[in-house]
Amino acid sequence: MISIKGSLFFNTSKNIYNISNLRYFTTGSSTSTSQSKPSNIKIYKSTTTNALFNIATEDWLFKEFDTNKQVLYLWRNTPTVVIGRYQNPFKECHLQKMDEDGVVLARRFSGGGAVYQDLGNTNFTFLSSTSTYDKNKNTQIILDSLKSIGLPKPEASGRNDILIDGKKVSGSAYKQSGNRSFHHGTLMIDVNLDSLQKYLNPNKDKLKSKGITSVISRVTNMKTLKPNMTHEEICDSIINEFCKVYGESNVEIEELNTSDLEKIPSLKETYNTLKNWDWRYGNSPTFEHQFEKRFDWGTIDINMNCTKSVIEKVKIYSDSLNPIMIECLTDNLLGVKYNKEGIEIAIERTKNALNNKDIFNKTPVIA
Questions:
Q1: Is residue 70 part of a domain?
Q2: What distance in Å separates the CA atoms of residue 172 and residue 281, rounded to the nearest whole number?
Q3: Which of 217, 216, 201 has the alpha carbon at shortest distance from 166?
Q4: Domain closes at, from 281, 296, 315
Q5: How far apart are CA 26 and CA 179, in angstroms?
């Protein structure tokens, strides 16, 4: 492999962008960086682990890639829970633990279930025209890349998964729009499985939702089979197999990072959408949440209806001897965002209205 610093102008049907980082990947013994004919493939690799940027980049590529080429995009994220477009994060995730531990919540544009990702997980995306899209060929590239680095007998299972020794190491999903298709998936190298359980387990409060429920599958890390396995190794192996399948020996690899946001307006627009609270939380389906808490002055049982993660209806039951407090809290909960900050604002307003700073000794825990 040869790394070259330079500048590349990326030409799409709509725009020309100046991408700062370019390197070449060479298969076989050749070290030439020139091509005798135009390449029919394109490879992108993210050098940032910012999940919102990486997901935005995938969407941007899907909308703007050259459909005359076969495209590969490789990336990984810092600790993140990625939920499907139609899921409810308050049901799928333990948001309070995520907030305490600095785990990012991201909502993808496509459907599917909730997944936990960290630096032990490698993401791959194949993009092509619908007329040349071949899921089986893409899957075989991943299988061959795993075999080539010494992993024993990886096999495709069902429509979406890759197994080794009967345990899942990779899952995939697919998207098509007009003449554009993609196949993306994950590869579990050394994912923190304790975190997977920790952040994807919903709170035990009585939470009802119209969203899709995720199931934690039987999974394993490939590093248990190959202790020295790395993200860079599997990326190089995937690139090598991708090049072999499409008959290329020297290919350009564009390395993308957050500095490209200022160069590519459409990418920046997508990134800003993904990081917006209204998209990540407010796009949730309508749901109900009920919880009960015992204080020195009595028990409080709060029932809330939320739409787009904003509290729209509240009914509070209590044996408190202070009915004004119950009425005041009910009024202050209406219209606030359903998150820790929103609940704290409602409680603080109630305290101030009643001039009683000790009426609540602890913020109720939300999902």
A1: yes
A2: 24
A3: 217
A4: 281
A5: 30
CA distance linking residue 131 with residue 33, whole number of Å? 30
This prediction's pTM: 0.73
Residues 262 and 306 occupy one common structural domain? no
pLDDT digits 0-9 by tens, 149-184: 999 899 999 888 999 999 999 999 888 999 999 999
In-domain check, residue 213? yes
Return the pLDDT at 278. Answer: 86
Distance CA 299, CA 318 (A): 6
| DSSP E strands, the chain | 5-11, 16-26, 41-46, 70-75, 80-83, 104-107, 115-117, 121-129, 155-157, 161-164, 167-177, 180-188, 206-209, 250-256, 287-295, 298-307, 310-318
Structurally, how many domains does the chain consist of? 2
Residues 71, 155 within the same domain: yes
Q: Which domain covers residue 348, as residue numbers? A: 287-359
How does pLDDT run across 30-59, given as a tens digit for each residue? 444 444 567 899 999 999 999 999 999 999
